[in-house]
Specification:
By secondary structure, the protein is α/β, with parallel strands linked by helices. It folds into 2 domains: 120 residues, no CATH class; 161 residues, Rossmann fold (3-Layer(aba) Sandwich). Helix content is 35%, strand content 24%. The strands form 3 sheets. Strands 1, 2, 3, 4, 5, 6, 12 and 13 form an 8-stranded mixed sheet that branches. A 3-stranded antiparallel sheet has the order 7-8-11. Strands 9-10 form a two-stranded antiparallel sheet.
Length: 317
């Protein structure tokens, strides 16, 4: 593959080229989610080790009445990073929403999810948006006010500064008197956290390694995928689980129009998943233009479901 320029490379290509050029190599986690990556993640959510999905689902079910009242009845619901939208019907039912706007970076997977939801909710108006919610975006014309939905502790994939910037962007996108229903994972025993990101079935490992396969498929890569292994570890100082792809031997390969080399033991840092105490989550809200109005957790405090209201305008619940 010839040397690619910034003008000819996709966003994915630029991220890969720039990330692999760094001394500490890294690729943003949002590029996990091509069609295969999205399907693998859905498999992860059903694993016994992966507690967030089932715990958050139970919270949405158990607190539906209060959730509907506080999140705003009859509003359009905007879901950032919709994925398979498996939890979405719970919020739609709780709020009585008639319009749903799923936003996701994977167009193919979004189309499949929308088709499934449309079959089960024929009266629901669905307006899908293919895009990267981590960047400023325009929504279709909708009656205001709006309710945002950001489940799955996806906010944990962003460092603290980027998380504040993202939540401020949501605040601006959703507008006056917005509500945000957000799932945030909690700090807990390191053994439980690491198991959730390194399951016995190897699905998370396949999800991580698929990023290299995607580079080979889409960016003319020659990465020897079998020369890498998945690693997940809790970083106590940073308050996050880190995922890496570790080179098991010395290698050289092409990707995004460049030649790269890696030493044995060198890693590509692919994901962070920050965990928050309740006080840290509330601080995050207030730093980004939101005021916490409700919080629920399970008896073991494995996961938290929050409702926030946009500050500075509109009535309070």
């Amino acid at each position: 593959m010839s040397e690619a320029t910034a003008d000819t490379l996709s966003d994915f290509g630029r991220a890969v080229r720039d990330g692999l050029d760094q001394v500490r190599k890294t690729i943003p986690a949002r590029y996990f989610y091509d069609l295969r990556g999205s399907k693998l993640f859905e498999e992860i959510t059903a694993l016994p080790e992966y507690y967030p999905t089932r715990t958050e689902t139970a919270l949405l079910e158990d607190h539906a009445d209060d959730l509907g009242r506080l999140a705003g009845r009859g509003r359009s619901v905007i879901e950032f990073g919709a994925g398979s939208a498996t939890k979405t019907p719970l919020l739609l039912a709780a709020t009585g929403a008639t319009t749903y706007v799923p936003v996701d970076i994977s167009g193919d997977f979004l189309a499949q999810s929308v088709a499934d939801l449309a079959r089960s909710h024929p009266a629901l108006r669905i307006v899908p948006v293919v895009g990267d919610f981590s960047k400023p975006m325009d929504l279709p014309a909708l009656p205001r006010p709006l309710t945002g939905f950001f489940p799955g502790s996806t906010i944990g994939n962003f460092d603290h500064r980027s998380a504040v910037d993202l939540l401020r962007s949501f605040r601006e996108t959703l507008g006056v008197d917005a509500r945000l229903v957000i799932g945030i994972d909690t700090r807990k025993n390191a053994r439980l956290l690491e198991a959730a990101y390194d399951d016995d079935a190897g699905i998370t490992a396949a999800f991580n390694l698929n990023l290299l396969e995607r580079i080979n498929r889409e960016l003319g890569g020659t990465i020897p995928v079998d020369a890498f292994e998945h690693r997940a570890a809790w970083n106590e100082d940073q308050g996050r689980v880190e995922m890496h792809l570790v080179a098991t031997r010395e290698i050289s390969f092409n990707a995004a129009g460049r030649r790269f080399s890696m030493r044995r033991g060198e890693t590509i840092h692919t994901e962070n998943s920050y965990k928050y105490t309740l006080s840290e989550a509330r601080l995050l809200a207030r730093a980004s233009g939101w005021e916490p109005v409700a919080f629920w957790s399970d008896p073991d405090e494995m996961f938290g479901l929050h409702v926030w209201v946009a500050t500075g305008d509109g009535p309070r619940p």
